[in-house]
Amino acid sequence: MDREIIPIRKSYCTKWAQLDHAYFELSRLRRQKSDLEVAMRWNQGLLNCLEEALDELHFHNNSYKKGSTSPNFHVTLQHRVLHGNNINLATERELLKEMSTTRNQLPVDYDIKHDSTHFKQSLNEFIQLFYEERQSESRYKNFHKELKCIEEKTIVIACLKGRIWNPWASLATIKKYITIIKELSEEIEKENREIISEIEEAKMNKETESIRKKLLKLEHQLRDMRLKREEVHKCLLNLTQCHQEAVLYPFNY
């Protein structure tokens, strides 16, 4: 009986290992899909920060240019006190009011620095978490190199100008970041679609379904073999007991 059970049990273990591997691969794909979705949300957050910074820098530059074209833009209050000017008080009050309003609309320097610092931290965390797991994937290597290249160039320029590095120092830098991160988002979305397709294929895999059916069949066979073995074992016990009683009490038989 055991000789019949052993090959069935081996076959069962083999099939179970195959099914376990299939489940492991499916689980791996689902984790990868989840990681990519997190990366897409993180990337979108970086992109939103960059687009806001671009709008603010555009606004700041346009406001500065608009003010600089005014004939009284460079005339300070001290200059007017010492030298006077040729505009009346009503016009001067209106000009000061407009300048005050414009300054209130401009982004505060502290806020810009805070946002750019937050962006740097988020970008570095994203690179560390996302790229460390994908160092061997060629599809993301160029993006990593380009992001690091932008950072290195802006650091060098800041050092040459004697300034603290700010990734939002120029429109060109922000636009480069936006272009690269948009392309990266497209690549992540593309990989995510590929993963979703692989997950669906894994779910519909006929071979996996065939393994499941064979496992069920082997389980039934093992159960039937165990029941038969138990019946044979009980029968042997009964026969042994009867034999012992016959030896001890021969006159009862």
TrEMBL record:
Which family does the record assign?
Belongs to the plant Proton pump-interactor protein family.
Record flagged with keyword Cell membrane: yes
Task: For this UniProt record, give its keywords in alphabetical order, as a comma-separated list.
Answer: Cell membrane, Coiled coil, Endoplasmic reticulum, Membrane, Transmembrane, Transmembrane helix
- The chain's coiled-coil residues are 174-205
What is a single cellular component term in the Gene Ontology annotation? plasma membrane
Localisation per UniProt entry: Cell membrane; Endoplasmic reticulum membrane
Q: Does the keyword Coiled coil apply?
A: yes
How is this protein positioned relative to the membrane?
Single-pass membrane protein
* Stored InterPro entries: PPI1-4
The protein, known as: Uncharacterized protein
